[in-house]
Amino acid sequence: MASQELQLIKEERRLFSSLVNNVVMTQIQATHKLHSHSIDVGPLLDVVEDILQRYNPTVVIAQQAQVEIMEEKTNHSSSIPTPEALPTIKRIACEITCKFSDGGDVNAKMLALFNSLSNYSWDAKLVLILCAFAVSYGELCLTVQQASVNALAKSVALLKQLPDIQEDMDTLKPRFNALNTLTKKMLDVTKDIIELKELRTTYNTMETTRKTMDMTDIPNAVYLTIQIIVNCASLITDFICLGHEHISSTTTEGKDLDDKFNKIHGLMKQLDSCREHIGKKKNMEGIQVLNRLFEMKHSDNMKILKALIHSEDVILRYGGIEKRVSMEVLKKKTVILFISDLDISRVECEVLTEIYNRTSDRQYEVVWLPVIDGLAELPVEKEKQFKDLVSLMPWHSVHHPSVLKPAVIRFIKEVWNFEKKPLMVTLDSRGNVVCRDALHLMWIWGSLAFPFTDSKEEALWKKQTWTVEFLVEQIDTGILQWAREGRYTCFYGGEDMDWIKQFIAAMKSVKTETQKPIKMVYVGKRNSKELRLKEIINEIKKVDQSGTCFDIKKIWLFWNRLESMWHSMMQHGRTIEKDNIMQEVMTMLTYDGNDHGWAVISKGSTEMVKSHGKTILECLNKIGTWKEKINLEGFNSALKNELALYHTTKHCVSLQLPWTIGKIIEKVVCAECKRPMEKYILYRCCTD
User: What is the per-residue pLDDT for 656?
Assistant: First the structure.
């Protein structure tokens, strides 16, 4: 793995170095002092972003609207730019406005510019020059934008011979829009460079990260971005100098202006490649940092949580009550990271909420991490989907999916094996991963599985037995009580309505013949569509008013618990040959995998008889031939013995299992004959 990463880095380095002139870059890097001066670039970048993103010369904004924008930004900003940087910004603004607009040796001018900033770190050089450009850009925007509504701005524009936007809209608007697009791209690249630099600075003691660093990528990216900045600054000077009569593309001056735009667009293609390169490096090094963090020992969990959740104000949304709390509330607590995409079902959320709310003195906290690829800003429908899901959750959630950076999302997918099925990764009070997926434990035992460790899971299985209580635990308290009282219960399932009606009729005859009260409970079918299940439930209620039908949530939990039992026992190396519970679970899943129905009839907690739908229906319809045995053996024993007579070596059963942690189980034996089952791969997409 390490050798592949190093090879990838070498290939990227060769590609990236081709974007810039090696001779020029050697000279530029020679201007940089090793022990450079760092400044807080954050506040400066906030101001730049305000200028570059808020203003466009081709959009006229009324004075009152301008005041509101300024007030909004003033209230929003909580930091002030470093005073010592301001004179430097003013000096650079003069240099790039004057020196780079009169032709001459551009490389020499670039070298002189970098020499004047030799004491600053690479990211500081870039931000200072971007600030200087923003000064010129902001002045141009304000003057041109306000000239039609403000007398002072109109007079200044007249003296500067600035073109009139309203009169020359067709010619000017495409150019200003292009300039606006360029500035936003420069801002995005600058942010990427700063993030990569901060990533390296924060964790520069990590040996595994340093080994794979390419220390030339940031200087190269800074140089390329500054090249574009000074070219854009030159464009602004041209706008001012050309004046109204020369802006047309038919004039020589106008054509020169368009040529400069074309040159910058050529550089922007290089900058796009640069940004792609920086993004890959950020993701790769971000994953290395996370891996190393999880290998280290910590006194609490905050460093881990803040590495996963990148939020400037480090606050979380608290359930549906819209309360924001500091992430410090999670400090030194067991934290379960509930990981899913936005397509998680409402039923799953509601069931998990019910289980979560049953414990008043829980010893853990849950935080939802919604995983969405490549979307810093959510479309309106996705934003609504996110907010709707948050409103269902009584636990913590990040305030927006974008606080999960691409490196974190990639780590979640590659290291924690998240694909589509939700996960619950459990961290102890020091941030150590104690369970890669506690969700199956939550479905089976709820909070009883705390602290959700492998040892706790194993301990729970050692004392667990196969009973009716275990089968319907956390699902239906009425059935639990019925079983504890030693009464009869009949669980049945499937989607074949003809078989269901015949089976209900047969059970009515059995109850009449035996005079035994048997509680009928329909548990549906795994992965069945909600609409289909509702249709079946409505039909059952017409023919069996005394019976019980699980609702949609209970059906979902019933089958999901069985799948979770299978998953958990497989993780602990249990086999169907040696483990009775695993054999019973597999039998249930196998029954569900066939087209016809099935039934399990129990007396009390442990005395259970089960069979495929066709077999048990035929046996019950012939109760007249064996009902005499009931008084001697008991109903369940007599039924079991009769069903044994129907047993044959000929059978065809199938078992559909969910994709488990990215691997296919090599060997599964048949619940009927204990021989290895044939293995097939099923890809399913059903939107009915």
Answer: 62
Q: Are strands 396-398 and 364-370 parallel, antiparallel or unpaired?
A: parallel
Q: How far apart are CA 160 and CA 154, in angstroms?
A: 10
Cα dist. 569→182, 420, 464, 575, 579 in Å? 57, 22, 12, 8, 9
Question: Which pLDDT value is given to residue 599?
Answer: 92
Element (H, E) at 602: strand 598-603
- Rounded Cα distance between 367 and 335, Å, is 7
Predicted model pTM = 0.71
Contact present, 119 and 159 (Cβ < 8 Å)? no
- At 576, the pLDDT band (50, 70, 90 cuts) reads confident
- Cα 496 from Cα 536, distance rounded (Å): 9
Tokens of 415: 């290291």
Distance CA 281, CA 229 (A): 23
**CA dist 521 → 185, 354, 448, 474, 606 (Å):** 62, 21, 26, 16, 17
Domains of the chain (ranges, CATH numbers): 28-285 (no CATH), 302-452 (3.40.30.10), 468-645 (3.40.30)
Structural tokens at position 254? 């106008």
**What sign does the dihedral 656-661-663-669 (CA atoms) show?**
negative
Let me know if 323 is exposed, middle or buried by CB neighbors in 10 A (0-12, 13-18, 19+): exposed
Q: Helix (H) and strand (E) counts for the chain?
A: 27, 12
Residue 204: predicted pLDDT: 52
Nearest Cα to Cα of residue 593 among 469, 664, 494, 685: 494
* Non-local CB neighbours of 634 within 8 Å, separated by 6+ positions: 603
| Residue ranges of E strands in 309-373 | 315-318, 323-326, 334-340, 364-370
Sheet holding 548-549, edge to edge: 548-549, 518-522, 488-493, 598-603, 607-612
**Cα–Cα distance for residue pair 237/322, rounded to 1 Å:** 49
| DSSP symbols for 433-475 | EEES--HHHHHHHGGGGTT--HHHHHHHHHT----HHHHHTTT
- Taking 50 as the threshold, does the pLDDT of residue 210 lie above it? no
Question: Pick from 397, 404, 400, 337: which is nearest to 373 by CA?
Answer: 404
Residue with tokens 């709390």: 325
Q: How far apart (Å, rounded) are the C-alpha atoms in residues 63 and 81? A: 26
